[in-house]
Amino acid sequence: MPIAVYPGLTLTGAKVCDIVTKPQAQIDAQVALHERYHTPFVLSAMDLSAEAEAFGCTIHSSETEIPSVTGRLVTTLEQAQKLSVPQPGDKRTAVYLETVRRLRQLPDRPLVFGGGIGPFSLAARLVGVSEAMEMTVTEPDLMHVLLEKCTVFITAYLRAFREAGANGVIMAEPAAGLLSPRSLSQFSSAYIRQIGEAVADGQFALILHNCAAKLLHLPAVLETGLKSFHFGAPMDIATALGKAPADVVLCGNLDPTAAFVQLPPAEVTARVAKLLSATAAHRNFVLSSGCDVPPSAPLANLDAFYEAMK
Amino acid sequence: MQDLKALHEAVLNGDAKTAKAVTEQALAAGIEPMKLVQEYMVPAMAEVGRRFECNEYFVPELLLAARAMKAALELIRPLLTASGVQPVARVALGTVKGDLHDIGKNLVAAMLEGGGYEVIDLGVNVTPEQFVAAVKEKGANIIAMSALLTTTMPAMKTTVDALQQAGVRQQVKVLIGGAPVTQKYADEIGADGFSESAAGAVAVAKKAVGN
User: Fold this and answer.
1) Tell me, what's the pLDDT at B23?
2) CATH number of the domain that B74 lies in?
3) Residue in chain B nearest A175 by alpha carbon
4) B171 and B203, same structural domain?
5) Cβ-Cβ contacts under 8 Å, B60 against chain A
6) With an 8 Å Cβ cutoff, is A180 touching chain B?
7) pLDDT of residue B1
8) Pick from B131, B91, B116, B109: which is nearest to B198 by CA?
9) What is the mean pLDDT of chain B?
10) Distances, alpha carbon A14 to alpha carbons A8, A130, B183, in Å
11) CA closest to A71 among chain B residues
12) Percent of all residues in chain A with a pLDDT value above 90, rounded to a whole number
């Protein structure tokens, strides 16, 4: 099942800026897709700026783009140490919590998943993503101070999603996939493990999404102790299924841009068939997109995807 | 004076402080600036690129190596200009309008500088008009554009069109790159070159300008 909320804009006529600021616009877009494809679950939108905004980051917004963080909120260890941790519901995190609350009320009672950012990806937005990459080598202490604060917030935020009625959360940690496996372990997995131990149990699922991770990152990613992972196009998912424990679910990984946006429907069908064939031996695989399907993805391609899945 | 291999190692290991110190010493000792670039820094960045392709190095190592190279180049650049050494070409580089991602752009900038190109870094969210201005006012003969989002990719075509309308399209080569960008897209919009990776950007630039 692809991660797809924004393509619903084609059906509702709303804009991206509506989705990320108004719960009802988000719900309308998701419900439109849910009804078209009879999906067993519904999602809040993937927006990796809401948590950083809650911390105090400056956000660049436009009508057609998902908001992004600009500038650097933190540049020194002292600033990191003094940084206050926001509360769930601060700034636009309230939009996503309310979206989940209302999705929970849908009459057909689908599973509801919230969406949030992972600790390293959030910390990277606080100091600047390029800078964070370098700081894992040059200023690891600063990064760890931020990671601890991000972990506190994310844990509380995920609990708030649970209280709002979510069955789980998809936590996106793409920036960590750009690190070495060793750094991913130190600066991401160690903190995600803490979050998982605090929130994930048999009643609430934590699905870790890392669309930049490759096969060589798999052992470090599994160190999180989570049971569900969602990977992007760089992952050799067939081989990963052979290496992961049988009780761990791997999802993915049809390229959201190269496939869902840029290919004709017949090619999407062919790619789905190829992926299903490559993973047929594994019962712990869930076919999905490799990341959030962009607003520009033609519905015909989503139609082809769902048809090919049958 | 330190062994100049220390410069190669400093760039390779992302040690900007040592790269700068060794460069300062070497220049003070009368070593030719271009020797430092061509025999130590460029090979170091080439090795950095190779290690990245082999998954020995990752984005942090690339960025730190680029920073070390930049620190050394900042000492060398004024000397090259003063002695009349011409860059291979002048590149105006930026992430297109609406897009704020800069990691790839920053890596390409470092690779191109190391390859002997003069780089005018226009930053992120660069409008077509700004790219046109870089050609008209700063004499750029290569425009290099980066986009990470499918929704911002169209700005690449808009920029190519703007260059055409401004009457300067024929005097520049247009190179593009970024996660969603493909050779097919480059061909569709009439770009002169496309690179899948920052490491490949120098080779693409070289081919585009016919060197």
Assistant:
1) 97
2) 1.10.1240.10
3) B59
4) yes
5) 133-134, 136-137, 178-180, 183
6) yes
7) 61
8) B109
9) 91
10) 9, 33, 32
11) B100
12) 91
Considering the domain architecture, whether residues B35 and B105 belong to the same structural domain is answered as no
Encoded tokens for A291: 């990341």
Mutate to test the interface with A, among B12, B51, B52, B58 (most CBs of A within 10 A): B58
Q: Is residue A51 in a domain?
A: yes
Does A72 have pLDDT greater than 80? yes
Our count of domains for chain A comes to 1
Cβ-based contacts of A296 with chain B (< 8 Å): 150-151
Strands A58-60 and A68-70: antiparallel
Does B107 have pLDDT greater than 90?
A: no
Handedness of CA A189, A193, A199, A202 (dihedral sign): positive
* pLDDT tens sequence across A96-139: 999 999 999 999 999 999 999 999 999 999 999 989 999 999 99
DSSP string, A239-284: HHHHHS-TTSEEEEEE-TTTTTTTS-HHHHHHHHHHHHHHTTT-TT
Q: B133 with B199, same domain? A: yes
Sorted by sequence, the CB contacts under 8 Å of residue B177 that are 6+ apart come out as B104, B108, B144, B145, B146, B194, B195, B196, B197, B198, B201
- Boundary (domain end) residue, out of B29, B53, B82: B82
One domain, residues B156 and B70: no
Provide the residue range defining the domain that includes A144.
6-253
C-beta separation of B141 from B172 below 8 A: yes
CA distance B129 to B161: 11
Query: Of B34, B59, B82, which one is at a domain's C-terminal end?
Result: B82
Separation CA A50–CA A55 (nearest Å): 9
In terms of residue numbers, what domain contains B116? 90-209
- Report the candidate in A115, A75, A100 with the shortest Cα–Cα distance to residue A24: A100
Q: B11 touching A, CB under 8 A?
A: no
Q: What is the ipTM of this complex?
A: 0.92
Query: How far is the C-alpha of A195 from the C-alpha of A189, rounded, in Å?
Result: 10
- Contact between A15 and A32 under an 8 Å Cβ cutoff? The reply is no
CATH number of the domain residue A36 falls in = 3.20.20.210
Residue A19, classed as helix, strand or coil, is: helix
CA B129, B134, B137, B142 torsion-angle sign: negative
Tokens of A100: 């989940």
CA atoms of A23 and A25, how far apart (whole Å): 6
Does B183 lie in the same domain as B94? yes
Among chain B residues, the shortest Cα distance to A61 is held by B98
